[in-house]
Amino acid sequence: MLRWRFLLGTLIVAALAGLCWLDIHAPVPGLYLMPVVVLIAVLATRELLDMAAAVGIHPLKLPIYFGNVTLLMASWCLPHYMKTGLSSSQAAIGPVASETNPATSSVLAFAFFAIVLTVFWDEMRRFRRPGGNVANIAAGVFALFYIGLMLCFAIQMRVLYGVGAIAAWVITVKMCDSGAYFVGRMIGRHKLAPRISPGKTVEGVIGGLIFACLGSWLTFHFIIPFTIDIFNVKPGPWWGWLAFGLLVGAGGIFGDLVESLLKRDAGRKDSSNWMPGFGGVLDMLDSLLLSAPIAWFCWAAGMFGSFD
User: Which positions ≥6 away from 32 have C-beta within 8 Å?
Assistant: First the structure.
């Protein structure tokens, strides 16, 4: 099983690296990555709704699928529609003009509000007797927040700050996952949350954060300069990559625990058996989802310098 996981993991990393390389040279930022993100969102939404069904919660699925895809497409399309002043090659590699940020965020917030209203409306239409409606609404809104809205932050990083921002986020989180796993297996003694995730240890968390900082350093010193070399970059403080590693790594660990809680509540070991050795899409996505807003904030706050 370990050999299979290594082989499949290598293939996934190679495929993502190839898509990122294509996306750097795409005439529109995200042209090659967006279909993958939409597919992942649909599969993750299905798994989350299946886990809700396992505990007797049954929100209407179609509005939630439609809402998550709509949020992702709006997050991708709006900055392209609003931006000005960048050539196609610049737009494909690096950040979009910063003035598009407030308008995009406002429209996305309203879109989320409108989609949540449809969840309320659908439950109002099918109400027959007391019991279950509040849980259905809560599950529907949670699915929109947990998958659709979190992935919007990832899309905004790609469009506003370039492929390098995505690479920094994914590499840091996955290095944290790997470090926590190996250190926890080797020297883990003190359980972190035994009722939710018995395999996680305090020693694993510390090892994961160290690996996250290493991944952040490698990305910011070797990968990001390659992806934004057509810009005049003013370097940020030296501690930027260190803070990024610690914050994003911690967000990834928390996100992993959140998904473990969802699985325990549904009585499942994995979110699905879609990928043997890895579990489901949510099992691979869990640490990325709740760390995406943290990574986005680090970029938006200018921790790594500024772009001219």
Answer: 19, 22, 23, 26
Q: Give 117: exposed, middle or buried? Use CB within 10 Å, 0-12, 13-18, 19+.
A: exposed
Give how far Cα 195 sits from Cα of 43, 200, 254, Å: 27, 10, 15
Q: Give the closest residue to 132 by CA, choosing from 64, 60, 62.
A: 60
Compute and round to an integer the Cα radius of gyration of the chain: 20
* CA distances from residue 295 to 9, 170, 249, 290 in whole angstroms, order as listed: 23, 10, 10, 9
User: For the chain, how many residues are written?
Assistant: 308
User: Residues 121-159: pLDDT tens digits?
Assistant: 988 998 888 878 899 999 999 999 999 999 999 999 998
What's the whole-model pTM score? 0.88
Q: Are 249 and 176 in contact (CB under 8 A)?
A: yes
Query: CB of 209 within 8 A of CB of 176?
Result: yes
DSSP state of 279: B
Two structure tokens written together for 119: 């969840």
Beta carbons of 296 and 156 less than 8 angstroms apart: yes
The 10s digit of each residue's pLDDT in 212-228 is 999 999 888 887 776 65
Containing 230, the helix (H) or strand (E) segment is none
Judged by DSSP in three states, 199 sits in: strand
Which residues lie below 8 Å from residue 7, measured CB to CB, with a gap of 6+? Answer: none
**DSSP conformation letters of 36-102:** HHHHHHHHHHHHHHHHHHHTT----HHHHHHHHHHHHHHHHHHHHHH--S--HHHHHHSPPPTTHHH
